[in-house]
Design brief:
Shape: globular
Distance between the termini: 10 Å
Radius of gyration: 20 Å
Helix content: 10-25%
Largest sheet: 8 strands, mixed
Number of strands: 16
Order of helices and strands: HEHEEEEEEEEEEEEEEEHH
Length: 313
Amino acid sequence: MWLHIWLVLSIASLHTESSGLTSEEISKFSVSGKYEATVTVDQSNSEYFLIAASGIPDHPWENVNPNTPTNQNYNIKIRKTPEVSPTKACVPFGKIGLTRTGVAIYNPLAGGSVNAVQGDSAETFDSCDGHTSPDGSYHYHKIPDSCLYNNTVDELIGVAFDGFPIYGPNVSDISDRWITSADLDKCHGREVNGQYRYHVTEQWPYFLGCYHGTVYADVVTVTYDCDLNSNDWDAWTYYLCECPENGGGGGGLPPPIECRPDNPNRPANCPDGPQQPDTNNVNDQSGDGNSGCRLGVNLMIVIFIVLISFQAF
């Protein structure tokens, strides 16, 4: 009897699979050949795509800090069939995905776990909305709408390291405005025609709030402990599950005391700025778009094992 219960719990906790990059999306990964930009997608492996890229942008860049873009020789494994994790993964400091031109996408934070895009802690970006880190990695923290993003409807921006695509904010099902963070779940994504996808927006956290799926351990280090139902995180205007090793209030943990929304003297350099919680936002961002599917599959497994148990007796 206990063995059967253990089997039920073990099977129910397994990751579920979801559709990843389509052949049409893969075809969007390309560069013009200018500025030493390169990107290729090797599809020969049965389990993953291998994206090789120089990491140098396919557009002019400017020295807005002491750093200069250099060839990063990226070889990134992306699951062909992403695994949806029951508990979501934190986003690490630095690289969280790649654009369709092979340039790094970073999380929204600068050093010290402060907002790199807006507020008093905002960093300086060039005219193409990117800049370079000390290791020579050119990257984007926000919408690259000056040079990469063309503002076309349902435009692919790139892919997150868990294998799910990242799209722009101009979407076909919302005609009068760009999509916002309030339209998305806590990982900053949604399902469209049965496929999960992230969207980059003008609002915090811009690209990703957490990883909806699992990532290869040799690509980036994450922990799967983001509590989407945490009351502490619900108090934030929008969600970010920052990996704990970054020194911030992440991994599903409460934000630092001084950055709590109820602090009247909340510093401007807190990750999402000195904002009060939006009590009028009734959008439910606690779901992951697959809970119904997992519940149905797990229920069928439970019924099957129970039937076997009765036959055994």
